[in-house]
Write a structure and sequence with these properties.
- It is built from 5 helices and 9 strands, in the order βββαβαβββαβαβα.
- It is α/β, with parallel strands linked by helices and 211 residues long.
- The chain has one domain: Aldolase class I (TIM Barrel, Alpha-Beta Barrel).
- A 9-stranded mixed sheet has the order 3-1-2-4-5-6-7-8-9, with helices on one face.
């Protein structure tokens, strides 16, 4: 597999935010979101065997592993990697952009699926059938750039009754929209969601890699 980077940090997002976590960032992505903060993962990386990847992860001595990208499902070997991690009793989080069929992800893994908002310029790539394959253990993530994105997100949540299907996360594009403003909107509308910040961007410099 072509791997962009492997590192240990805390999980900066999701319901697992703040917990020690090992990250496997897989090279390649089929989308080009307007706010992407991992453009370096589009092509950069090196080929690694599954055994080498597992050896690296074992050295971190963490219980949680996040398989991310880029877009992890852009590699046909990702489902096998996830299975191998689960066989070693890791809790596996899989961050995916919502455009690929998430049924390829082993059921026991926790899916963290983006639903791309309009200002990402990628919302038309969303595979809406994926909502049918989510479980109560999975999470759906919206990243907002504007009030337009918020109103669109609210409509999607209500249309699909998402809060009854999976954990719903709402975040703000770092440096683009005020987190306080988004929280205000959520409270005004009594949305059944979890607001999240990208913790790593507040702990380290926002452009720092490997954290």
């Amino acid at each position: 597999m072509k791997i962009n980077e492997i590192f240990k940090s805390i999980q900066g997002e999701t319901s697992y935010a703040g917990l020690p976590c090992a990250f496997i960032r897989i090279t390649g992505c089929n989308l080009r979101c307007s706010y992407c903060d991992t453009t370096y993962a589009y092509e950069d990386g090196k080929e690694m065997s599954l055994s080498t990847i597992l050896e690296c992860i074992a050295g971190f001595k963490t219980k949680i592993v996040c398989v991310t990208g880029g877009e992890p499902l852009s590699s046909q070997d990702t489902p096998l990697l996830i299975k191998e991690l689960m066989n070693k009793n890791y809790t596996v989080l899989v961050e995916t952009n919502g455009s690929y069929d998430i049924r390829t992800i082993p059921q026991e893994a926790i899916k963290i699926m983006d639903i791309k908002c309009p200002d990402s310029n990628m919302s038309h790539f969303m595979n809406w059938h994926n909502i049918n394959y989510l479980t109560k253990f999975d999470e759906v993530k919206f990243v907002l750039s504007s009030r337009k994105d918020y109103d669109w997100t609210k409509a999607v949540i209500h249309k699909y009754n998402l809060s009854k299907i999976a954990h719903v996360l709402i975040g703000a594009v770092f440096g683009t929209i005020s987190p306080r403003l988004v929280v205000q909107w959520i409270l005004e509308d009594n949305l059944d969601v979890r607001f999240q910040l990208q913790l790593h961007k507040y702990i380290w410099e926002p452009q720092t890699r490997g954290v």
